[in-house]
């Protein structure tokens, strides 16, 4: 976790099950989706 540029906390992340990495189109779709999600959230903050 960050507060500005300062790290104020860390946690280990443990997955309950393995998940295969998506193919090229899945990763591309996810990246486009994150781009628009970040774009929209920048207007709502």
Automatic annotation (TrEMBL):
It comes from the Bacteria. This is Uncharacterized protein. It comes from Vreelandella olivaria.
